[in-house]
Write a structure and sequence with these properties.
By secondary structure, the protein is of the alpha+beta class. It has two helices and seven strands, in the order αβββββββα. Helix content is 16%, strand content 30%.
């Protein structure tokens, strides 16, 4: 699948740094595994900030965001734009500076309005291959085991 001109321009400007777009992050302190027993999840979730561009069905532009948590099956994002359960999306994730963008189709599986006027929502990835899921999982586990985060 070929990336749109807008997305290619966004990626050319991306320098690999994760920026807190919403002003409510506690930085790298959240990097790590999450307790999946408390939320009845089938797949291990990781509190790893991943730069992503979400394209909602019917929108002309993609929207830049940062994952709140992520697994090999889906992710939690935030947006000013209201989201609807069942809404189809295209997710493009940047898994490191030198890596190609991972693109997949997704579907909004839950949505919640937050007091800060953002909408938090969960996206289930629907067409990642086993190889792509494995690569994503490798990135997430390698990221939390990185020496840069050892002191956090």
């Amino acid at each position: 699948m070929e990336l749109s001109k807008t997305v290619r321009n966004q990626l050319q400007q991306f320098d690999g740094r994760i920026v807190d777009l919403f002003g409510d992050s506690d930085g790298n302190a959240r990097v790590g595994k999450m307790d999946t027993k408390q939320c009845n999840r089938r797949h291990e979730r990781y509190a790893v900030p991943v730069a992503a561009w979400i394209e909602f069905y019917g929108d002309a532009n993609s929207r830049g965001t940062i994952s709140r948590d992520i697994s090999s099956e889906g992710a939690r994002f935030s947006s000013i734009r209201p989201t609807l359960v069942g809404e189809p999306v295209i997710v493009r994730m940047q898994l490191g500076r030198a890596k190609p963008v991972m693109e997949c189709k997704g579907r909004v599986v839950w949505s919640k309005y937050m007091p800060n006027r953002l909408h938090e929502y969960g996206v289930r990835f629907v067409d990642l291959t086993e190889e792509e899921q494995s690569g994503l999982l490798g990135f997430l586990t390698g990221h939390i085991q990185s020496p840069a985060y050892a002191a956090v």
